[in-house]
Each structure stands twice: as structure tokens, then as C-alpha cells.
Design a protein that fits this description.
alpha+beta, 5 strands
């Protein structure tokens, strides 16, 4: 998989669903035909979950909304996880593979967490 850093940066700046980012995700993943060629990952939680299943098979997903309205997502593979959380907690800890950021919708949060995990070289489950 190619470099996804630029796409992660675009997702970090996104404030809502963005069809250009959706197209960039599809291009990054080499999706050009079939049903998935029209997915709107940043707009649809179902599409974002399908994205995680496609690029990070075997990973578990946890998400919730804080009273502040920010959406939180945790992607878990064994003891490693990528976490998207509140804006004021922008940090990275390599020890637990924790990544923080903020998103206004669960779909954006999930897309961001998945692509950050890919940018760090994570892939599907080591379990069969």
C-alpha cells in the first residue's frame, strides 16, 4: 500500500463528509470497479466499517460519543490500537500504538483511525 500520510492529513482537516476524500480513499486502495467503487466512506458509518473490514481484517472496532459531541473510535488488534479522541488530546504514544485526533462524525473518526493505522504499517489480523 502506498503512502497514506497526505490522506490522513486531509481527514484530520475534514469537518464533515467529503466526496473528494472518499474518491482519494478508493484510489489509495485501488478500488475502481464494482459496488465499492461508489462508497462514501466519510458519510456512511456502514461504509466506514466496511473499509475497516477490508483493510484491517480481524480488527475490533469500538466507538462512542462524548457529551461534547466529539466521536471516539478505537481499533484493536491484540494489544495494539489506534485511538481517535478529543481535539485537545492530540498525542501519539508509540508504546501502545495510540493515535489521537478529533472528528465530528463517527464515519470520519473511523476513516481517520483506519488510515492512521495503515500509515503506521498495520495490516490485517495475525490470527487466521
Amino acid at each position: 500500500m502506498g503512502d497514506v500520510t497526505g490522506l490522513v492529513e486531509r481527514l484530520e482537516k475534514a469537518t464533515g463528509p467529503d466526496r473528494e476524500i472518499d474518491a482519494a480513499i478508493r484510489a489509495q486502495l485501488g478500488i475502481s470497479e464494482g459496488y465499492h467503487a461508489h462508497e462514501f466512506y466519510t458519510a456512511s458509518l456502514d461504509a466506514a466499517l466496511a473499509l475497516v473490514e477490508r483493510v484491517l481484517p480481524g480488527w475490533r472496532v469500538q466507538f462512542w460519543q462524548q457529551r461534547s459531541g466529539s466521536w471516539h473510535v478505537r481499533l484493536i488488534r491484540d494489544a495494539h490500537y489506534a485511538l481517535v479522541t478529543t481535539e485537545d488530546e492530540d498525542r501519539t504514544r508509540d508504546g501502545d500504538n495510540e493515535i489521537a485526533g478529533a472528528r465530528s462524525t463517527p464515519a470520519l473518526a473511523l476513516c481517520l483511525a483506519a488510515l492512521k493505522a495503515l500509515a503506521q504499517g498495520n495490516e490485517g489480523s495475525d490470527e487466521g
